[in-house]
Structure formats: structure tokens, C-alpha cells
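Audit log entry. Action: structure prediction of a protein-small molecule complex. Ligand: adenosine-5'-triphosphate. The ligand was supplied as SMILES and no pocket hint was given, so placement is left entirely to the predictor. Protonation state taken as written. Sequence taken verbatim from the request; no trimming, no tag removal. Recorded inputs:
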Amino acid sequence: MAGKNIQEELKNLLTLLKKEKDADLQQYRKKMAGTSLKERRKKGVCWYPINLEKTKYDAGERLIVKISRPPEHTDAHLFQSGKLISLFSNSAGLGDHEDAVNGVVNSVTKAHMHITMNVDSLPDWLHHGQLGVQLLFDENAYREMERTLTTLLNTKEDRLTEMKKILLGDKSARFTDHATIRDLGLNDSQNAALHQIHNAQDVAIIHGPPGTGKTTTVVQAILETLKSESQVLVCAPSNAAVDLLAEKLGEQNIEVLRIGHPARVTEEILSKTLDAKVANHKDYKDLKALRKQADEYFAMAGKYKRNFGHAEKRQRNQLRDEAKSLKAQAEHLSYYIINDIIGKAQVIACTLVGANNQTLNGMTFETVFIDEAAQALEPASWVPILKSNRVIFAGDHCQLPPTIKSFEAARAGLEVTLFEKAIQCNQADTMLREQYRMHEDIMNFSSRLFYKDQLIANEMVKNWKVYNEDQTVEFIDTAGCGYFEEVDPETKSSFNTEEADLLFKHLTQYLSQLDAMDKSSDLTSVGIISPYKAQVIAMQEQLASMELDEVTANKIAVNTIDSFQGQERDVIYISLVRSNENGEIGFLSDTRRMNVALTRARKKLIVIGDSATIGQHPFYEKFLDYINEIDAYHSAFEWISE
Ligand SMILES: Nc1ncnc2c1ncn2[C@@H]1O[C@H](COP(=O)(O)OP(=O)(O)OP(=O)(O)O)[C@@H](O)[C@H]1O
């Protein structure tokens, strides 16, 4: 094990990270290319013109604006909650806007956007019209990751050097031998994970296949850790994952402090942010009064202008001194309030990169928990580890990997996560084995291909169905039907209209069958998934045109695989799309992504595809073997001939 060139590995990682940043910036510039606002609008990176509808202050006294775009502007856009934007005025008709203020998108719909501004009050020019918003390139995450890797490369600190060796495979992780930890609410493998975490001195890894209660286990492990440590750091790569954990910990009456921009957290978690906690602190009234008084004195001092004699000058200086002293008192009180809040928090929750937030400057933790660690870039994972003595990872490297923009960087190693490296280098992982989501026929293929056949279905779910005689898994083979894929010329994404038609024919029949049996209410949710965006859009349109009653329509969602990660539905349809004479399967060869798709269904899974095209790939060859084994094969001709 010894002798691995860790320094070279980290230097290479830093180079790959720079490549990734360049690729990201290039993609951003491509979208922004062309100075015309109309062109930018068409590319989805700008709304212009916009209307300033409302302004208000949130609980933490941050300025929020609501804007809208004209109803005829219906172009798809790339604005999302958490994105950094610039609100600008084009009154001078210039391409580059001198009058601009930045903010972060809170929430966005087709026509409206709420933005938390990075300024305290709105500049005057905002009221003169000709306003727009556009996306900005957010360099912050890259900056923090680069800084972290540089620190890691140059560190002389003993413990960090040791952690570097352990996590990258140059030294073995150590464990103590404390008595068995057992939580009566957990199953055997979950208890084994708790026990391992309890004994880990450097690293422990919870490997959580779909539906195996990873989140439940992480929450219990945090509760257990808090019995011996007064505070833990809890991180995840995305804001959504951090919020989910913060919510679950809150339900257990744990005092959680959520560090991060309020625009980036969900409504439910707002009360746990530092902004909100400061505003609710018992001493906040005093802080506000001090700040107000200081502002008033400063304003009064500024007013003494005419007949400016010696006495006035003295009075002005006195007011200024008084104002400065009040301001210093306010800062002191603010510092006290923030420290009080941090000190009382049992869990500090933030994104990986958010662990470098200045609020946490100089703080260290005994343990950091990193959830969804298999979706985190390695440089991001190191950010909170630099502040911690040991790390507990949770995730599943057999599901979605991190999103990487540079194909070259991904291939050269950026796609390998620290989670994966730590699993390979140490005997520190426990795989959760009992799953609580799927009928065992749905589970078994994934279990065989990804989890060494070790998953078991909990008694409650192993045989569940929408109705007793229902077939749990169906593969509908379109081979020989001539349902060829097409490519959207603009987006280059593939779609297959006839396959979508077949899918909806099956769904319509299934729904009427349930209706006829009076079982409609037993079906709570249906997910329709495709790896191809163009197919998703086409199917969303088809679903919208179906004129379903509201109750049924609300049960059905169509989306990409990525957006279904972490979710589950009673029934899942998967449209594989690819059908060509050369056996080209493109995106479908990403088997980890397919593992996510195949494990979203609770009670019924219907996969539609062309066996002649997909069957040439070993993964789908095995899938088709499995389909035959469980007698789940159907030909599309069964539906066509009707
Ligand atoms: N030991 C257990 N006993 C009974 N139910 C459990 C147990 N562990 C987890 N569950 C249930 O299993 C379901 C999935 O749990 P959880 O959300 O923790 O899973 P997960 O592995 O995080 O899911 P995902 O696949 O989305 O990552 C939940 O309904 C949870 O209550």
C-alpha cells in the first residue's frame, strides 16, 4: 500500500479541476455569446424586458424582489433556484450594463422570479424601467475547491497529512473495539453500519443501495455520535440533500444550524438559517436599536453644513464619535449573538463548498458526515474534511456520479470520487442490504448486476403489487416494429415518437383496467422516465394532451432519470428510445444511470425498448436474460395488432 504518489495524484486533480472550470466557463460564454439581449433570451440566459412587481424583506432582513416577464415570452430558460444573477438596466441601450446589482434566484416559474438581492436597498435606476436579469458565472465553488486542494498539497499538519494518506490509500484506516452499538429500530446491516461508525477513528462508509434506508441510518448515526460529541458537521454536495437531512434531524429535535444563502434553502429550512436565527435571537431587538441609533447619529452629523462654526464642528464630532461607539457596540453584540447561535447548534449543516463559509472560519469538528458522497467531486469532499478529525461518508457509487462538464477531465480521473477511492482503499464500508421500496422482482436485476446479489427485500414490500394478479415487471420489445429513433436537430437529443405512443397506449389501458376493477385509488403514483431529454419533452406534451381527470393527472410525472434520483413511484415506465440498425446505444451505456431508473418503482416496472439495438451491449443482454427468466417478455406487436 505504501509508496503511492499522493502528491502527484493531488496535483493532477488540481489540473483537472482547472480544466473543468474552463469547460464550464466556455459553456457559459457560448450561451452568452452575441450581445443582443434577444439572442440571450432565446438561449435561456436572460429575461428582458422585465417588470419589477414587488419588493420585500425576508426574516433575515435581506431584500427580495419579485419580477415578471411579458406573457408572450415563453422561451425555455436556465434560471434555477440558487443561481447567481445580475439585475441590470438597459436604459442607455448598451450591450454591457453599467447599472447592475447581483442577487441569487430564490424561486422561478415560467413567468415570475423571486430574487434575494446582494444589496440592502434598491438603487434609484431600478425605477426607470428597461430592466432585465441575466445569469452570471459563479466562480465561488471553483475558488474554494482550488484553495482546498492547494492547502491539502502543501499541508505540514500531522493529522491532515495522515487523513490524506488514509483516504487516498497509503495508510490503513484504524478502528477501536468498543461494544456493539445497536438501535432497536434498525435492521442488521444498518446496525452494523452504526457499529462501524462508532468504532471508526478515521473513516467509515455507509454504502446505501436504493431504498435501503441510507438517510434513516445517517440520521441515527448522527444522533448516536451526538451522545459523545457536542457538535457535528453535516454536509452534502447539493442544497437539496443538505435540506433533507436538516429536516430529518429537526424532526428528531436536534438543534440544526443551516449555513448557506437563504435563497438556496427550502421554505421549511429557512428558520434554521443563521439569518433567521439571528432575527429570532432574544438580543436581536437590542442589536437593531443600536444599529438604528448609530445610523441616526451618522445622519444627524452629516446634516450640519451651513453656518458651520466651531460649536457646530464640535457637536458634529461628538455625534460621529457617539455613532462610531454605537456601531462598535452593535458589532460586538452581533458577534456575541452569532457565537451564541453557533455554540448552541448540535449540527451544523451546509453544502461541501459551503463549509468554507466565513461563519465557520477557524472552527474544527471531531466528525463530519458527508451524505450523497458518491455524487461529490473529490475536491469538494475535501473542503469539510480539512476542518474535521474523521469523516463518515454515505452514498452509492453504483448510482449517479457527479455531473462533470469537461469530458476530458472526467475521463482523466475527475469522475472518480473520494467516496469511491475510500471504498477501494479501506475496509471501512458497510453495505446496507435490506431494502424497503421494491417488489423483489424489480430489485433482483439491480442486486445481481451492482450489489453482488446481496440485497434482500423487506417482508412488507417483497411481494407487493398494485393488485394481486398484476404483472410486476414487463419488458415490451419493439424489435421489428420499425420504430426508429430520431434526433432533434437543435438539441441533438434522441426521441422515438412511436415508442412514446406505445407507452401511452399501455398506460391508458392499465388505467382503465384499474378503473374497471375499482382499484384506481390503490395506485398513488406513476413515473415516466427516459434518459433522453427530447423524449421527455415529447412525452410531457403527450401527457398534457390526454385530458385526464385532475386526480389521475396529478399522479403522473414525466421526467429524466436524474430528476428521479432519490424518488420512488408505485409504477414506473422507462422509454429507452434507441432503435437503430447499428446497435448504437449512446447514453444508455451509462449503466449507473440505468440502475437509478430501474430502481424507482415500488410495485410495477414497464421497460419499453428495442432488443435488437440494446441487446448487443452486455448490460442489456443480461437484462434481457433476466426478463426471460422471470417471464416478463412481451412483444410490441401484442399492442399493435389490437
Ligand atoms: N430499519 C427500518 N425499518 C423499517 N423501515 C425502514 C428502516 N430503514 C428504512 N426504512 C424505511 O425505508 C424507506 C427508505 O428509507 P430512506 O429514505 O432512509 O432510504 P434511502 O436509502 O435514503 O433512500 P434513497 O434510495 O432515496 O437514497 C423509508 O420509508 C424508511 O422509513
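Audit: result stored. The mean pLDDT is 91. The longest strand covers residues 46-57.
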